[in-house]
Amino acid sequence: MKSFIRIMAFTLAAAMLLPLAACDSGSGGGKVETVKIGISLYRKDDTFVASLCTCLERVAKQKETESGKKIVVNMVDGQSSQALQNDQVDSFISQNYDVICVNMVDRTAAAVIVDKAKAANIPVIFFNREPVEEDIRLWERAYYVGADAAQSGRLQGEIIAEAFQKNRAEIDKNGDGKIQYVMLEGEQGHQDALLRTEYSIKAVTSAGIQVEKLANDTANWQRAQGSAKMTQWLAKFGDRIEVVFCNNDDMALGAIDTVKDSKTKVHPAIVGVDATESGLNAIKDGSMFGTVFNDAQGQAKAIFDLSYALATGESPSTKLNIQNEHYIRIPYRAVTVSNADEILNILKE
Ligand code: GAL
Ligand code: CA
User: Fold this and answer.
1) From the centroid of its chain, how far is CA 82?
2) What is residue 297's three-state secondary structure?
3) 180 Cα to the center of ligand 2, angstroms
4) What is the per-residue pLDDT for 263?
5) 3 state SS of 242
């Protein structure tokens, strides 16, 4: 009988401990053994997003060694479907993930995700595709990590404006004092497409330089689409095109593919954004005029550090520079041939 009581007491005590162990992750107080981060991507085959993921995996591994905790980073592909992405978030919630990071398929649909996360009390970090502020403010544990899209446009425009002022003939090929340009835009409605398109041109005109838009269209961030649009424009405008503003490097590389294949003797100045490895190599070989460094490493580190802080119960603002309670923005940098190697080295770090 005595031993029966002892067994019962032991079972009871163990049963009482169980919920504690289950809450272990995310309860704070330095007891966390496993940190589970669920990440849903708008699409896995996007060049910049893919590089961000590689960086994220690397920081997570580093932290795992450093902290002795087990860090699970589960990345799933939303395949451009908001419905699928919502299911993925539900699944992370039902598996008790500590933090959910979302690269929205449709950035206007974030309220649904915030509501789900809030109901489950799991913090949510949006990244790269910025929800409207109203949605971020629905809950104090909703965050956005990204960059200041207008800044990338401004820096891109300044590269062209400075070149025009230094050596006008390099840009203004027909010598009419104006810049004839075409604009390859990213996905419609994406904050980076809207603001880069607007601010690149504003930077040029506010430097006192006149512009003439020959054409603009979306190529959805993609190299093949960029190349196809450029083929049409080259057929229509020929060497009247002096500058090709591209909302990202992949589309710029597409435009370069077309220019290289064509017989045009006058090559327009082609500028992008991201500073991907291929983009930087194109700057080095002279086929791309400039780009703007979109710091995947810096953004990945911020996403991870914020996730880790939220999962372990640390106050995020002690180590991270959080603006307006919800935002972390990593600065962009202009890149031309003078610093392309420096940025290439950063990518290789
Ligand atoms: C932008 C980036 C693009 C594309 C897009 C996807 O920040 O410049 O190349 O990756 O995000 O949302
Ligand atoms: Ca001109």
Assistant:
1) 18
2) helix
3) 5
4) 83
5) coil
DSSP state of 179: E
User: Facing residues of 37 across strands?
Assistant: 73, 99
Q: Cα-Cα-Cα-Cα dihedral of 164, 275, 107, 318, to 10°? A: -110
The tokens describing 271, both together, are: 């500028």
Sequence-distant (≥ 6) Cβ neighbours of residue 217 within 8 angstroms:
183, 184, 185, 229
Question: For a pocket test of ligand 1, which of 42, 192, 249, 332 has the largest count of ligand atoms closer than 8 A to its C-beta?
Answer: 192
Q: Which two tokens stand for residue 63?
A: 């932290």
Q: Report the 10 Å Cβ neighbour count for 50.
A: 15
Contact 344, 280 (CB under 8 A): yes
To which residue do tokens 């699970």 refer?
72
Which residues have CB less than 5 Å away from ligand 2 (the ion)? 172, 174, 176, 178
Residue 4, pLDDT > 50, answer no
Contacts of 216 (CB under 8 A, 6+ apart): 182, 183, 184, 185, 197
Residues 130 and 191: beta-carbon distance below 8 Å: yes
pTM of the complete model beyond 0.70: yes
Tens digit of pLDDT for each residue in 90-107? 999 999 999 999 999 999
Q: Which two tokens stand for residue 287?
A: 């086929």
Which amino acid is located at 182 in the chain?
V
Which residues contact residue 236 at a Cβ distance below 8 angstroms, ignoring those fewer than 6 apart? 214, 215
